[in-house]
Amino acid sequence: MTTFAVLSHRDVAAELGHLGTWLEARNTRVSRLFREDSLQIPDADALIVLGSPTSVAEGHCQTAARQEIELVASWVADDRPFLGVCFGAQALACAAGGSVRRMDHTFRAYTEVETEHPNLEGRWAVWHEDAISAPGEAIASLPHADAAFRVGRAWGVQPHVEFTSDIVERLARAFGVDDSAWRGLWESLRDDEDGHECRTHRLLDEIFPD
User: Fold this and answer.
1) Measured between alpha carbons, how far is 135 from 50 in angstroms, rounded to an integer?
2) Which domain holds residue 85?
3) CATH number for the domain including 30?
4) Rounded to whole angstroms, how far apart are CA atoms 67 and 119?
């Protein structure tokens, strides 16, 4: 049985959503790790790093975020399967020689990315304040940032593949975001929950083929 280590915060941005349904369908063993406890990764076959309100952007990266970049760098140096989602993708970008910059606004949308990769086509839930410049050539992009890239067996994906409409609403409430800033994302995702889950599962099947 494949063991996945999943690193997140304990309370905020911790829900697995569509990622969780994929892990259940694959009959995997999941080890949940929380940034508030430790950055020690146990023995696992694959590592998934989820989003965070902290930042690895130039001029905004604090000590804990630098430690996480080092952890990701060590993991991918051994060419082990890895998926970074949003903050996790940004940490991977920094670890692999790319860069991350702070934008002047938070981007929230249910939108298509520009790509020729079949498993990245369609609409995705995007919520981020920091923009990736990928190491090497990106495989998907948004008008303001790279959206997906690969480094060996490691993938960085800016869209929140795990998001459901319920997760969006809970995050918005937790961060005190004005309704007008997140309601459009929530409504669009609510109307296409099955489609978003299907695209997420198809992409995960490619990222973790075994």
Assistant:
1) 19
2) 3-207
3) 3.40.50.880
4) 31
